Amino acid sequence: MWKVVDDRELGKIRPASFASHIQSARASSLHLSNRKEFVTAHKGAVNSFQVDLTEKRYLLSGASDGSIAVYDVQHATDYNGGGLVAKHTSLFVVDKRQDFSHKYSVSSVAWYPVDTGLFMTGSLDHYVKVWDTNTVQVEMNFKMPGKVYGIAMSSVSTSHMLIAAVSEDVQVRLCDISSGAFSHTLSGHRDGVWAVQWSTSNEWVLVTGGCDGAIRFWDIRRAGCFRVLDQFQTQFGRRPPLLKSSTKGSVPESSVASTSASAKVKVPQKKAPCGGGAKQSSINKGWTKGSVLQRQHPGMLSSRNRASAHYGAVTGLKVTEDGMYLLSAGTDSRLRLWDIESGRNTLVNYEAMRLQTNKPIQLAVTPDTELVFVPGLTAARAYDIWSGRTILTFRGHYECVNCCWFNSQDQELYTGSNDRQILVWSPDSMVEEEVENNEKGPKRSLDEDCWSD
Amino acid sequence: MATDGGKLSSLIEKATHSTSRELDSSLLNSIKAIVKSSDANVHVTVETLMENMKKNHSQVRYLALLIIDELFMRSKLFRSLLVVNFDGFLGLSTGFRRNMPLPPPASIASILRSKSIELLEKWNDSFGCHYKQIRLGYDYLKNVLRFQFPNLPETAARLRHERREREIRSKEILVNKFENLKSNYSSIKGEIRSTSDEISECFEIISGTNSKDNKFSCDSVDDENAVEESTSLAMRRIRLESLREGMIVHENSDNKAVFDMLRELYKLLTSKHLKTVQDSISVLVRVDASDVRFRDSALKELIDIRNDLQLAKKRCEELGCVAPDDDENRILWEEGKIEVESNENSNLSGEANKDMVYNSYGDESKNDASTSGKESIDEETIVAGDGFGPSSPRQQLLAKAPVMTWGSFLDSWGMVRDVPANQRGMELECHWGRVDYDAVIPAEKIAELNVQMTYYNEQHGEIRPCFAPLKKGGLCQRRDLRVCPFHGPIVPRDVEGNPIIANTSQKHDSIDIGGPSILKTSTKDSDVSFQPSDLETLTAEELAKQAVKNVRTREGKEREKDKNEKRALKRAKLAKVREHNEMVLRQSALASTSQGLGEVMGEDIEALHHTSSEYKEKKQTLASMLRKKVTPRDRLARRLLNAHATEATVRQLTHGEDSNYREAFPNQW
């Protein structure tokens, strides 16, 4: 560490790389924190949580007992064990005792991306609710056709306030907060949908993963989905050189024709980059055969596409911070990394681990796209995204882990589990240890060897 | 290191593969020593122990858990290694996962579970704040799975709290008592003072009357003294005693009222005042009051008062106005008192009791008791002055009582009765079956056990020389016991060697010798005496011997005659008894139990023994006792063989006995 500081001092490395170096070093040394703990306010499994995107300070969590709680991750409410353990009690809790709260398990929570004045929750009682944080009151209700499994708001949107909500219904709905009504109904999945994510690079693109094993990309400005991921459309490595040239967008036709010649036989419309829908559809027309397809609306063409991303249901999706890659987890206990640009499976072999199959899970990715945190059965794992090797195993929960969240500000990982706990995994801190050594002379003697004989 | 590791794992294997509920301490110590020596060993230990925890046997897991606890409490490294997979460890030790229950031996599995929960609590208490994993495990088991933790520290704290509260409460009570005492102090003191004043007044009255009464007696004693100047020391002591006795006033019609008063006061004193004083003293001692001055002074005063009261109480008891014994004692001794009163008219119960004792002892004629009894009787006769002269029947009885060595058999002297075998106030836990509380040791068995042995003590005396005149002059110096081979029987001779016995027979009436008691007793009916002139030449011992000899020969004759008579008498009696026995036997042949028959036989023998012992001396008694060694069963058998009893009886008897035996000792053969 000190060498890097020295290099930075001498100007050998740039500030950004210095910061990323420190951050990645910290992120790869996470372990169960003894200094910081959340005093869980939940009586049931923690299904989902999110730290707000503006301040990175408030952790919103929803649990299967219908309760919603907000914790301050920066400031501890009290200390325990002689100042050794910082306890973070919830700032407020909404549970079933309030008559406006959710009746059943809260499956998904999300902050309003712009500020912390609002947050959204989706529950198995078919409702999506929008809450005012300051008054802790429900501002808006959206009644969904079935159990809500996931909700999402785009972190990059500037022109819309849409909540994408997926449920056991096959249709994905977009709830418009400004009007209080459903603005879109996206049809395409053949089964309930568990996972939903907005693209982090394009405010119009939505990704959903369903129980039919399909991952669909939607451009909300158009009808129908524009891409279905196929696990057999593969490519090696991070980005094939030909595709790299195609990302420039100047010559899409030629690049598509050359790279995916073999794939086109099975799946005709697979290669268009986002935003190039018009051009693409014209090409597709040439490839489609038969009168049935021709009669359909161009946007509905992909509805016949039965390509699957996973064997079994897709339980979790995560778009990387740079918006170029998509990670998906399925009930086949596989983790796949997709190149969003090309829509191909990158064939990264993540080390075997069993994943939860009866619930959606929430993955987390470090901002520099180095590590992915995957909730396993009782232990979460950190994989190197590109090699698939297990970097860390987070063992501490007593039941299935449901969700992970990486707090990029503090390089801390939070995990929520069926055992009601939210655990904090923090990196080693030299400073903290020094402080501890200085401060707790008498305390330290408690945790020492004591051989009586 | 590698050898250490191998040794360590083998040690752990050995320690965990045992059937006992505890760890072998020596093995544990060696494990600890090795683990302590290096960090690598700690790693090996953790691995080995976790492997053992995975074994499919609760006993192995349990012992491994015990080792883990030992090391966990000691080594920091061990702790930090164990907590890495703490949920796995808890799953193996408590079996909280439904798909991984604890392995087979169900009883040990439950012990394992409770033990691990207890240990988890302990660890959480001591190291919880250092290890999040321990906290998490504890929290999970407690709050999610709702395991019942023993909650030891909390229980201990609660107990401590309760004790403290109790102490505080008792202190409050004490302080309250103290305050009460403080306010009531003067009144209590006044009450007590008035009582003690009354008591002392009573004493004064009594002693006043007493001194008048006593004057006369004292004077008379003095007069006596004047008369008999030459008083022995013993006499003086006796006089003093009697004087002291005289000082003690006895209740009579005159001072009855005073005594009644005194009795009431005494009761008040013992039941109320002494108790209150005692209580207040203890309160004062225990309380830590603010008012130290009052406490000290009151304590001092109270102790003085208590001493006064005790003095008064003692005096009351001395006066005899109150029986010092409590009710229980009185009841216990009631029987004896009645006897005493019927025997004697004395109102001095102590003396009467003494007499009683002497009487009973005198009859039994113990060796020691008789001697000591004699002394006290002498005293008594002088002190009490009533008729216990040497001619009293007691003296006569004493004279002919046998002299026995002391022994426990004297307790049951003269008693012919069965003794309960299992009723001695102790609970007997017999290994060999149930205890028969009704079992008795029959009287004859007791007698048999109490048979006394006597030792023959050889009497060494000087063997006198023959002293027969020799032809060559002088006297024969040969020493023989009875007969000299040359001069015939040895007889007392005079200086010249002439035998003196021939002379003595004619003049036996004329002498009266004051000598040893043994001679004295025999002189009465002795017709042997010596010439005064001969006495000079013979020592007293010789004379005594001669006399004894004479007496013996005569007594022997008498005895022979007596014996013949007795034998005839006895024969007649025996014949009678036999007749009776036969009759009884005939009857008892019908009886089913040997007990009944034995009793019948025993009675006969008793009767026989009784008749003979009336006439015979100790030797005969002992012989009969010895004869009793023939068990009733033998006798029965003999009699049955002789008499007309049938075999059926025997069978019946043995059958009855067997069944009795089986009933009494069901688990014996």
From TrEMBL, chain A:
Region feature Disordered, mapped onto this chain: 240-262, 432-453
Identification of the protein by name: Uncharacterized protein
Biased composition (Low complexity): 250-262
One biological process term in Gene Ontology: proteasome-mediated ubiquitin-dependent protein catabolic process
Coiled coil residues, start to end: none
DNA damage in keyword set: yes
InterPro entries, A to Z: Rad28/ERCC8/Ckn1/ATCSA-1, WD40/YVTN_repeat-like_dom_sf, WD40_PAC1, WD40_repeat_CS, WD40_repeat_dom_sf, WD40_rpt
WD repeat start and end residues: 39-74, 99-141, 186-228, 307-348, 394-426
Residue stretches of biased makeup (Basic and acidic residues): 437-447
Signal sequence bounds: none
UniProt keywords, alphabetically: DNA damage, DNA repair, Repeat, WD repeat
Pfam families xref list: WD40
Any one annotated GO CC term: nucleotide-excision repair complex
Source organism: Amborella trichopoda
TrEMBL record, chain B:
Residues annotated as signal peptide: none
GO molecular function: RNA polymerase II complex binding; zinc ion binding
A cellular component term, taken from the record's GO annotations: chromosome
All copies of domain UV-stimulated scaffold protein A C-terminal, residue ranges: 399-500
Protein's UniProt keywords contain DNA damage: yes
Gene Ontology terms describing biological process: response to UV; transcription-coupled nucleotide-excision repair
Annotated region (Disordered), positions in chain: 342-376
Pfam families: DUF2043, UVSSA_N
Annotated protein name in UniProt: UV-stimulated scaffold protein A C-terminal domain-containing protein
Organism this protein belongs to: Amborella trichopoda
